[in-house]
Amino acid sequence: MQVIETLAEGLKREIKVVIPAKDMEQRMNERLADVKDKVRINGFRPGKVPVSHVKKMYGKSIMAELVNEIIRDQPSAILSERGEKSATQPEIVMTEDEKEAEKILSAEADLEFTLSYEIIPAIELKSVDGITVTREVVDVSEEEITEQIEKIAESARTYEAKKGKAADGDRVTMDYLGKVDGEAFDGGKDEDAELVIGSNRFIPGFEEQLVGLKAGDEKVITVNFPADYPAANLAGKEATFDITVKEVAAPAATEINDELATKLGVESVEKLKEIVRGQIESQYGNVTRQKVKRQILDQLDALYKFESPSKLVDAEFENIWRQINTDLAQSGKTFADEDTTEEAAREEYRALAERRVRLGLVLSEIGEKAGIEVTEEEMQRSLFAQLQQFPGQEKQILDFFRNTPGASASLRAPIFEEKVIDKLLAEVSVTDKKVSKEELLADDAEEGDKPAKKAAPKKKAAAKAEDAAEGEEAAPKKKAAPKKKAAEGDAE
């Protein structure tokens, strides 16, 4: 077998592989000799079939198998011998001419094919002694714990009927009928509906018009559905609602005690506070983690400058660009609305894609040199977390990961990356800094995520592109009209 390098330009490589016809014929004959003792052909006793006859019947199919095996196995063997790693699956090109292919299968012509690929550049790891990060730490106060418990207690809050007028925070029980242009619309009617004024469960302007009403009152209120309301027949329309108030109830005072804890399924108020403190600390810890990680990535970005494989950058850019356009479509905005142009945005996000690929290669090299591995148990935990996010779709998700080549890499990669970050945190200089929760949660404009000063078009998308922006909240759901279960029937 001849292996001839025909291109070595930057990271691009092209290899021509030639296997002489006589070598292919020899491999075929060895396979035929093994097959002749196993095949059953009418007119011949087992093991007595002449090789020439077996060759006539099975020669081309066996040669086709050999060609497929060579195409499958040789590229990785060749790269290994050359000490190279391909950034993506090498592109293999061989003849498409039927006559030439027929000659190859008949062992009358050499088997020739070319491998085209980009190599992963050699990365010389540098000292991280100069990397310094500031880890922002927030002390969770008793007041914050109490405030959070009071929010949680809303689910267990009781209400007591009152004779006075409805005020903010009161629960109103009512019947309503919604109309557009004087005609009732689907999903706009309910009886004995309960609404806490100020909960913002209904469309804007609805709840405020209930203030001052009391049991027995009737009123027609007018509201405007948002222009982006999901039900197209209601979006942007003015609507009226015929309201009949049946009861006004005031919220009972919430006392943070063992009784409340029991209602919430916890044995004591101390245990409840402990759980809530842990939840708050975990939330702040996730934000702190992302900020520290970004500092490390920014400094690694400054340390390592090398050419990245263009195909990896292309694939990363397409992922980012798809997300950008999805965000714009969902928000109904254009690049002009974001004070940029499509051309400028493409340039910026191309730079972001290049940064992501380069840093990914650096982290991979650091992890590989350190012997970092992702265990099967860690993979299973990650898969289980995926299943929890999509209840009812467990089978489809499992089938996807079982049947999709490379799908497991989407589980492994983030685990591996976080373990590399953990390793770096143990080696770099870390200074803790006490900050307020407002300082911790302040929008720092994601400077580490942006390739240029303008965000263009969405900072959130850039953050996702950089490090998946753990904890990033989804866009709030559209306000219901006026009750969620009724309106969602129209919107879905």
TrEMBL record:
Where is the protein found, in the record's own terms?
A: Cytoplasm
Q: Under which EC number(s) is this enzyme classified? A: 5.2.1.8
What species is this protein from?
Rhizobium rhizophilum
Show the GO MF annotations. Answer: peptidyl-prolyl cis-trans isomerase activity
Q: Which InterPro entries match?
A: PPIase_dom_sf, PPIase_FKBP_dom, Trig_fac, Trigger_fac_C, Trigger_fac_C_sf, Trigger_fac_ribosome-bd_bac, Trigger_fac_ribosome-bd_sf, Trigger_fact/SurA_dom_sf
Q: Which reaction does it catalyse?
A: [protein]-peptidylproline (omega=180) = [protein]-peptidylproline (omega=0)
Domain remarks = Consists of 3 domains; the N-terminus binds the ribosome, the middle domain has PPIase activity, while the C-terminus has intrinsic chaperone activity on its own.
Q: What is this protein called?
A: Trigger factor
Recorded family membership: Belongs to the FKBP-type PPIase family. Tig subfamily.
Spans of biased composition, class Basic residues? 453-462
The highest taxon in the source lineage is Bacteria
- Keyword field: Cell cycle, Cell division, Chaperone, Cytoplasm, Isomerase, Rotamase
List the residue ranges of the region (Disordered): 436-492
Q: Which SUPFAM superfamilies match?
A: FKBP-like, Triger factor/SurA peptide-binding domain-like, Trigger factor ribosome-binding domain
Q: Which residues form the PPIase FKBP-type domain?
A: 169-251
UniProt lists the gene as tig
